[in-house]
Amino acid sequence: xxxxVDNVLxxxxxxxxxxxxxxxxxxxxNETLTLxxxxxxxxxNNHDSQACMLTFYPRFEILTNSNEQIEIIFIVDVSNSMDxxxxxxxxxxxxxxxxxxxxxxxxxxxxxVTFGS
Length: 117
Known about the structure:
Strand order of the largest sheet: 1-2
Shape: extended
Protein name: VWFA domain-containing protein
Number of helices: 1
Structural class: alpha+beta
InterPro entries: VWF_A, vWFA_dom_sf
Pfam families: VWA
Largest sheet: 2 strands, antiparallel
Low-confidence stretches: none
Radius of gyration: 21 Å
Mean pLDDT: 77
Number of domains: 1
Organism: Rotaria sordida
Domain VWFA: 71-117
Helix content: 10-25%
Order of helices and strands: EEEHE
Distance between the termini: 38 Å
Strand content: 25-35%
């Protein structure tokens, strides 16, 4: 749990770095939200909402042969929910990724795949 100390003014950005003890271990999280009968947000007869999230970080082998071809695919959501600053942030992230990528141009292929409405 993270708590702020009393009477501390946050007047600049701070970085909270979290490192997982076992990053490659799959994790699942399930949450249930029970809505009151008086709630105006319920659109069905079911007053309980559930959400489930599965998180995993695959292990990738480090290539030892520099002659092997590498393909990197950047998948970007361009649906209506990504309007405005969200799309700009995705573009900035792709640009940051590409400018910091140290690869052999002859054997590396980069593709952008978009999906959405």
